[in-house]
Each structure stands twice: as structure tokens, then as C-alpha cells.
């Protein structure tokens, strides 16, 4: 019996669904399972300092990355002021008191979502924890949390509290990530963004001086252009170049003369004389053609 195309497609889809269910069941079976004694909410991991009033005696907070030895340490002095005492990424900034106290309080009041007994710490990454977090009070008592692997099924970390190596705590991942993140970004005051300020450069000359300088330069340019234009016109009309130059220079000098001012005028650039020789102008030759007598000449001639 031959199967049609639709039947074949349905069979293939069914096979894919069955295989997917088998893989999912295998993953769930491989994930660490809590024992029958697990509690829905394990409560604070440090009951003695879970309330804010009890946290006032904490004087030291530290987070250590066991893998690369990077860390951050904050300490509180006798005046109650927190400071970043040690940091892998130190900065020349003041310690943000709100952030410092808040970070310490998160660890002190951290609550576990679950806990269970297990002697197979290797399954949870707790045979060699990745992070080591500690709080120390004024009497020298320490509160320790060691972090292992992240849970596969949900956003949780597995951890050990103090010296208990039999009880595995299931901790909220977002809060633990915030505590671990203090290594890269300690509780410093935010660095101010530099503001670029533009400073105007003072002009060495006053407005009157600038105007006088500009007028003198304009007059000098006009004089130079006038001389050049008159020389060109003289060459065309057959007038002596030297006469035109003298006349034009006199006129230009007269026009460029400015009434004396009490305001000092900055020196202007001097136009260098041109080395280009001026070609001699053409000399008009006398014409040999007889000029007819005018009427006045004819009348004065005797008959």
C-alpha cells in the first residue's frame, strides 16, 4: 500500500515530536533534583543579621572571584563611613555611602528560594566554588557564602553557607549577580561628565582700530589699481608712461590721505614694487598726408 504525501508528512512530524520529548525528559533527569525534604522557601541565609537593625554592626564586606583572584573589599570606620578599601579596579573617587550600605544589606538579608541536603557537591559546582562572599561584624564574626554553578532549569545559583557543606542553598540569580558585579564596578560615586567650556580669545585691536586699518588697506588697494589702469590707458593712447604714473600717483596719494587720528593704527602690509618692466609706449609718427586748409585759413589768405 502506497502512502500519500500528507500521511508521510504527519508521520515525520510525529517522529520529531517524540524525539523532542525524549530529549527534554533526559535533560530533566540529568539536572540535580532536590530531596523530599526541600522547602518552598528557605528564608534568610544569615538569620542573625537579616534585619536592618542587626546590620549596623557589620564593618567589612568582600567578594572574591576564586578563578582569577579579582576582588573588592569595603570597610567601615568608627565614624560609620564606608570606603572601598581594596579593589581590582580602583579609582580615585569617593565611596558612595548609599551603594555601599545597600550592597552590604543585600548580602546580609539574602534569602534562599530553596535548600536541600546533598553529599554530591560536584553536581552543583560546590566542590570548587567560583565566588566567595563574606561579611564581618565588629566582634570579628564572619558570615560566608560560596557560589557554585547556575541552575539549568531556572535563574538560580547553588551555594553553601558558612561551614555547612551538606546543605545546598538555591539563591536568586539577579541578586547574586549584583553582588558579584561589585568586583568590576565598586561602590564609587559616579564620575562627573566633563563639560567643555569654550573661551573667547580677546581681540588685540579695538573696533575703531580695526576699521581704520581696513580703510587704509582699501585705499591702498584702490590706489594701486588706479595706477595700473591709467598706465594701461596711456599705453593705448600713446601718452608717456612716466607722466601718467606721476599724475596717477599724485591723485592716489591725495585720495588715500586720511585725517590724522589719535587712535593708533596697526601697521599694514606694504605692497612690494613690481620688478616687471613696463613696455615702452608707441610713439606717434608724423603723417605725410597733406592736411586740407580749414575755413579760417582760407579766409585769411589774400585773393
Structure commentary:
The model is unreliable at 27-39 and 294-303 (pLDDT under 50). Among the domains are: 32-180, Immunoglobulin-like (Sandwich), CATH 2.60.40; 206-258. Helix 4 packs antiparallel against helix 5 (241-256). The strands form two sheets. Strands 4-3-2-7-8-9-10-6 form an eight-stranded antiparallel beta sheet. By secondary structure, the chain is of the alpha+beta class. It starts with a helix and ends with a helix. The protein contains six helices and ten strands. Helix content is 33%, strand content 18%.
Level-1 CATH class name of the domain at 32-180: Mainly Beta
CATH architecture of the domain at 32-180: Sandwich
Structural class: alpha+beta
Order of helices and strands: HEEEEHEEEEEEHHHH
- First CA to last CA: what distance? 153 Å
Task: Give the mean pLDDT.
Answer: 76
Strand count, sense and closure of the main sheet? 8 strands, antiparallel
- In total, the number of strands is 10
What is the 3D form? elongated
Please, how many helices?
A: 6
Helix content: 25-40%
Q: Regarding quaternary structure, how should these chains be classified? A: single chain
Assess the beta-strand content as a share of residues.
15-25%
As residue ranges, the low-confidence spans are 27-39, 294-303
CATH fold-level name of the domain at 32-180 = Immunoglobulin-like
Strand order in space, largest sheet: 4-3-2-7-8-9-10-6
- What is the gyration radius calculated from CA atoms? 50 Å
